[in-house]
Aklanonic acid methyltransferase DnrC
Amino acid sequence: MSNAPSLELDSATLVEEYDRLGIRQFHHGLQLLDVLGLREGERVLDVGCGTGRLTESAAQRVRAHGEVLGLDPLPLRVQRALERAQGRFAARVGRAETLETVPDAHYDVVYLNSVIHWIPDQAQALREAWRVLKPGARIGFTTMPEEAPHDLHVVLQALFTREPEWRSAGVGAPNKLTRERSAALLRDAGFEVTHNEIRAFGDTFEHVDDVLAFSQSSSFGNFLSSLTPEDIALVRARLVKALEPHRSARGYELTRRMIFATAHKPLAH
Ligand SMILES: C[S@@+](CC[C@H](N)C(=O)[O-])C[C@H]1O[C@@H](n2cnc3c(N)ncnc32)[C@H](O)[C@@H]1O
């Protein structure tokens, strides 16, 4: 995968799978909303809102006097978000790097939950977030730490190192950050960092096919997209063996770590 993931591989099936398996992103997303401390009446922008599950929670927190907009480049995910919204929040197609229809200094909070590692020009995305935030307003993101990868990615990398032709298959996201680079990115955009930590989450998957579907739907089809169906079947068979040490009576138990980074735009700048 190049550093710009394809936005052309999404499908109705991947949207359904994400709605089922992306509950994991939802759970850490709720923690991000807690850290950001959303208040009644606030205006919130969810960048990379996906199918809108977390956007719905943001709308519940700011209640009727607040305003929530979700943006995502994938039309099928935006469609699902709109079905979910039932008028309680807005959603439309858009990208983090060009929030052109969003007015300056409008929002109290901008957040990106499990999104920034997909964005090729992260500095531009943060400049846009800065533009649309009011002075004193907050920004936050969660992202996969490069220095503490997901158990699944460690297992897959080990499998892929042994197969040179699989190396470009795309395991995880192409623009991962470290905790240090997350803070630097925010500071370079002019923000004052308020929170920057790594939290760990235990994921349980009943079946290896759920592990693969989770990765495929979370990556909107980019995961293993360069492999043939025969190669993918081989990856699956080898993954079953490689994941054996992670198996318990409940299923495959995998640890996922996430950076939680928040900051605010200074009042005077
Ligand atoms: C793992 S999903 C996370 C979705 C949602 N934030 C959640 O917590 O469930 C990653 C999302 O990032 C979006 N995305 C990818 N590139 C993006 C970009 N350049 N700007 C905004 N969103 C992007 C994808 O379309 C996808 O919906």
Q: What stands out?
A: The chain is about 40% helix and 25% strand. The pocket of S-adenosylmethionine is lined by residues 22, 25-26, 29, 47-50, 53-54, 72-74, 77, 95-97, 113-115, 118-119, 218, 220 (CB under 6 Å).
